[in-house]
Amino acid sequence: MLDKKFYTNRKFVAIIATLCCLLWGSSYPAIKNGYLLFNIASNDIPSKFLFAGYRFIFAGLFLFIIAKIQGKTVLNLSRRNTLNLFLLGIFQTTLQYIFFYIGLANTTGVKGSIMNSTVAFFSVILSHFIFANDRLTNKKIFGCIAGFVGVIIANINSDMLQFSFTFTGDGFVVIAALIFSIAAIYSKKLTESIDVMIITGYSLFIGGFLLVLIGYILGGKVSNFTLTSSSILVYLALLSSIAFSLWNILLKYNKVGPVSVYNFLTPIFGSILSSIFLNETILEFKNIIALILVCIGIWLVNKI
Q1: For residues 168 and 37, is the Cβ–Cβ distance under 8 A?
Q2: Under a CB-based contact definition with an 8 Å cutoff, are residues 276 and 215 in contact?
Q3: For residue 214, which of 50, 92, 85 has the smallest C-alpha distance?
Q4: How far is CA 128 from CA 134, 166, 183, 300, in A?
Q5: Strand, helix or coil at 224?
Q6: More confident: 88 or 113
Q7: Would you say the C-alpha torsion 85, 88, 92, 93 has a positive or negative sign?
Q8: Cα–Cα distances in angstroms (integers) from residue 300 to residues 10, 145, 149, in the given order
Q9: Cα–Cα 20 to 30 A to 53, which of 61, 126, 135, 214?
Q10: pLDDT score of 155 more than 70
Q11: Is the pLDDT of residue 46 over 90?
Q12: DSSP class of 194
């Protein structure tokens, strides 16, 4: 087990946070291909709940297995810790993805990506009021603005001309981002008394189980399990378990604001990887400008 000094090293934090965002960004094309392979229509929200639920259940089970191999206690939890983990699973996984999927179904992918990037703003602002050592500064404000502008530039196309705002579309995506930010801070609090891997495992498993339950009740269906489709599901489960575990470790040992600003990289990576794996144009000047702005934003927020 690495010590606290290693986890708070700026270079390590930058590498791991970027890796997490790269993994989350890779889920964009993976999920799109998963919908095609599992015959899930774009407007079939219950089946999307079911698909996401399977993914997170497998991710949670994977972490439980690793924790057990490492000799960690998985099942013997106090009543208070069980309740805390159940609440985290509901918010961090179930509620967040319910709002996210319904929101995406009622807005464009471009606007959804931009709205979801507000998670960095929420995290920086909330941590200002919750943690005495993570106050807002001008550099943090300008850093968040630079990152947000970068995300907007990366998503510029004809959809940007549509300035309409729908509560069940754009609004729900923003709510999902807010829930993610609140849950991240809550999980940071839980790491004071519970192992990070156990926290992440329960959050994913409980949240995934509830998504499966809701998906089944609403008539969702996931079929056509083949080697290719199953491989994508396994990949999505592994990236979730790895990314969320590493992210929670970073939040445990570092301030929320400087870590959360890396979230601006996720839609950038998602755009680039979608271009690669979905055979779209990637070598665009706007992507370079967007990445530069996001990096400037990250640098400003982390600059003392």
Answers
A1: no
A2: no
A3: 50
A4: 5, 29, 15, 16
A5: coil
A6: 88
A7: positive
A8: 13, 10, 14
A9: 126
A10: no
A11: yes
A12: S
> pLDDT digits over 8-45, tens only?
788 888 899 999 989 988 888 888 888 889 999 878 99
pLDDT, residue 218, reads 94
- Residue 171 near residue 165 (C-beta atoms within 8 A): yes
The candidate with the shortest Cα–Cα distance to 248, out of 297, 201, 206, 301, is 201
Span 173-184, pLDDT tens digits: 889 888 988 998
Residue type, 76: N
Interacting residues of 185 by C-beta distance below 8 A, sequence separation 6+ = 123, 126, 127, 130, 251, 256
Q: Which residues neighbour 1 within 8 Å (Cβ) at sequence distance 6 or greater?
A: none
Residue 68 backbone class (left: φ over 0; alpha: ψ -120 to 50; beta: rest): alpha
For residue 176, what are its two tokens? 């999902």
pLDDT score at 298: 76
Higher pLDDT, 146 or 283: 146
Q: Measure the CA dihedral 122/127/129/130, to 10°.
A: 130
With tokens 């599992």, the residue in question is: 38
- pTM comes to 0.85
Give the DSSP letter string of 66-87: HHHHTT--SS---HHHHHHHHH
